[in-house]
Amino acid sequence: MMICLLEQGSLLGPAQIACLISQGIYQVPIVRKPSLGYLMTGSELRFEGDSVSSGQIRSCNGELFESYLSPFSEHVTDYGFVRDSVDLLKAKLSHAEKHDVFLISGGASVGKYDHTREVLESLGYHIHFDRVAVRPGKPLIFATRENRVIFGVPGNPVSSFVACTLFISHALAALGGWRRQAHRVTATLIKDHTKSTKFDMYLRGILRIEGQSTMVDTNLNQSSGALGSLARANCLVFLPEGKSVFKKGETVEVIPIAGWGAWN
Fold first, then answer.
1. Which pairs count as long-range contacts for 65-68, CB under 8 Å and 24+ apart, including other chains?
2. Exposed, middle or buried: residue 151 (CB in 10 Å: 0-12, 13-18, 19+)?
3. Nearest to 128 by CA among 136, 94, 120, 156
């Protein structure tokens, strides 16, 4: 496939495009971005226009996927919602055949109503893994069948955000021919933290410059269900497995997530 550099955008920046054209190169081969579809699961979910009763929650993962993953995708398609039913989920997954990558939101864990793994196996998908040593975001299914990829992600939107940051955006970028490098910087903790040594933890944080130092404030609600603190944060703070105690003043890696505003 060829693309005219003057008519469509690409992963080449303005300087690279100018350099090519200065040498008389107006067309280059490209790799198509992957197409992405997604599906919400969970009988407790409610959507725009619905009233919310006890035991029900408003679904927001679809909007998260659209806003986060659209830059890495040729197009993103919403296939709506299914209740907690093996048969309904199996029928809906016929739509996965239309896409390079498909996301199933919810049902990725091992509870009574978590059917994603069971349904994928019944449809002939190979489950490469169904959990990662990461919190939040431990339940994460990665499955393939022929040239189709499916991710089963947690219904919890904070966990889904972490999955998009660490895994799904990179997978989409790679399928689109983009050698994307994770952007990480270092900063100084302003409070102590403890955790299990068995997993990586990604805390929500506020990155800021104080004098000549880059500091990170993690004094936010770190509950996996605390979406408000994710909305306030401008970075994820990486605390690696194998270590349990992190002291105030210690240097840590952080992943800026502040594309929507300044962090300094």
1. 65/36, 65/38, 65/103, 65/105, 65/160, 65/164, 68/161, 68/164, 68/169
2. buried
3. 120
Q: Which residues, in sequence order, are CB contacts of 82 under 8 Å at separation 6+?
A: 39, 40, 41, 88, 89, 92
Residue 193's contacts (CB-CB under 8 Å, 6 or more residues apart) are 203, 218, 239, 245, 246
For residue range 104-114, what is the model confidence (pLDDT) as tens digits?
998 877 777 77
Query: Which residues, including other chains, have CB under 8 Å from residue 168's CB and lie 6 or more apart?
Result: 69, 101, 103, 151, 153
Tell me the per-residue pLDDT of 64-96, one tens digit each, with 9 for 90 and over. Answer: 999 999 999 999 999 999 998 899 999 999 999
| Dihedral pair phi/psi, residue 105, rounded to 5° | -95, 120
